[in-house]
Amino acid sequence: MTAFDVHLPVAAQSGIDPIVAYGRRAESCGYDRVWLPETWGRDAASVLTVLAERTDSIGLGSSILPVYSRSPALIGQTAATLQEISNGRFRLGVGPSGPAVIEGWHGVEFERPLRRTRETVEIVKRVLSGESVEYQGEIFQLSGFRLRGEPPVSAPPVDVAAMGPKAVELAGRFADGWHAIVFTPDGIRERLEDFHRGTELGDRDPSGVRTTLSLTCCALEDRERARRLARQHVAFYVGGMGTYYRDSLARQGYEEEATEIAAAWGSGERERALGTIDDAMLDDLCAAGTPEEARKALDRFARVDGLDVISVGFPRGAEREEIEATIDALAP
């Protein structure tokens, strides 16, 4: 049975209190977990700490902490600390992000993302074990690092965000779960084959790993507003966030549309970019419309065999009351 989480807004919020309010609302509505992204606003660890203090039972997770902006040892320390603060409710999500973020915002060369992600996961798991970390990788070499204090009684699982076939295979082979974003139902099914191949290569028990899809949702009585917000969100990611999302859509049968969106967005023709996303494409990527329409679309994704969790996300342009309405309308 598919579980339902909430992917907290990626857009700037007026303060930490609204973010916490979304988390508390998700908890009261019966969602399993809230995930917090780390982009260019507040750092995720600090906000997750506040969420841990102001919620009681809902799971907490980072989706995602980029593997280039922190060292693997620091990511491990952060995960151990958040697991302690939350009384065992934390789940770590990491991923490479992309060149636009890592090189443009952090000034770090975006090189060998697959290898860096793999080594980060391996090191983080060793840090969380509480043992002394002796690691000789192709990118990282560590000796003597050990948590100062008791390790978590139950180590938080470590998930990897991925879109391409090899990256998804890596998640299945080395991590405890895979986070997917900007996928169609058929696209998820195809990548699940890569994920399961990874679990086989890693000699993993498939029942011990989880697949989570972050799905852009907007459930409003104002149908046109909901769908326009979702279109704007898709266009921004495809046109404004580098080539990863464009390449992923191309693999899912939307190469022509993705290329057109990126070209229009890059030339400042935002309305043309939005117009490229027809109703069929929008419904293949989002759950947007009236509450009844959004719920029906959500159920379509939930029926994908092998998808364990759907994380209800929101368009970047959604106002606070629109986010709250969507949380309520799509509650488990």
Q: What would your notes on this structure say?
A:
With 332 residues, the protein is of the alpha/beta class. It has one domain: TIM Barrel (Alpha-Beta Barrel), CATH 3.20.20. The strands form 2 sheets. The chain has an 8-stranded parallel β-barrel with strand order 1-2-3-5-8-9-10-12, surrounded by 9 helices. Strand 4, helix 3 and strand 5 form a beta-alpha-beta unit. Helix 8 packs across helix 9. The longest helix has 23 residues.
Annotation, overall tally of beta strands:
12
Give the name of the CATH architecture.
Alpha-Beta Barrel
Question: What series of H and E elements makes up the topology?
Answer: EHEHEEHEHHEEEHEHEHHHHEHEH
Fourth CATH level, the homologous superfamily: Luciferase-like domain
User: Could you name the CATH topology?
Assistant: TIM Barrel
The share of residues in helices is: 40-55%
Task: Provide a compact summary of the structure.
This protein is α/β, with parallel strands linked by helices and 332 residues long. The chain has helices at residues 16-29, 44-54, 72-85, 99-106, 113-129, 165-174, 185-201, 223-240, 244-266, 270-276, 279-285, 291-302, 320-329, and strands spanning 3-7, 33-36, 59-62, 65-66, 90-95, 133-136, 141-145, 158-161, 177-181, 210-219, 286-289, 309-313.
